[in-house]
Amino acid sequence: MFLQIIGISHPKRVMARAQVVARISEIIKKKGLTEKKNAVLLGIPQSKVSYLMSGKLSMFSLDHLFEIFNSLDRDVKIIIQPKTKKEKFATAQVLLTAAA
């Protein structure tokens, strides 16, 4: 994976957060609101909306991203389960449903 080549530790976790940010951006774009109106909706400064839309992952913890999902009327479910016997290591994954 490219992230491993450039030396990012825990690339699957970074990828999971990137998927979460991408889904939030997709939902926001579908709303068709201005950054200012999105900032009010999400309860964050307009600059953070800009960071979110441009994919600046380091600006948001997963907890904060979950709060943003909730502000967008989306539920967040976390499932924790044992790794399979086939897997060498346990991983973090994001399973996304359709972005209605």
Radius of gyration over all CA atoms, rounded? 15 Å
Order of helices and strands: HHHHH
Query: What helical percentage do the residues reach?
Result: 40-55%
Please state the average pLDDT score.
85
User: What is the structural class?
Assistant: mainly alpha
Overall form: elongated
Give the CATH topology.
434 Repressor (Amino-terminal Domain)
Unreliable residue stretches: 1-5
What number of structural domains do the residues give?
1
Number of helices: 5
Strand content: under 5%
Q: So, CATH architecture?
A: Orthogonal Bundle
What profile does the largest beta sheet have? none
Full CATH superfamily name: lambda repressor-like DNA-binding domains
What would CATH call the class?
Mainly Alpha
How many strand elements? Answer: 0
Distance between the termini: 30 Å
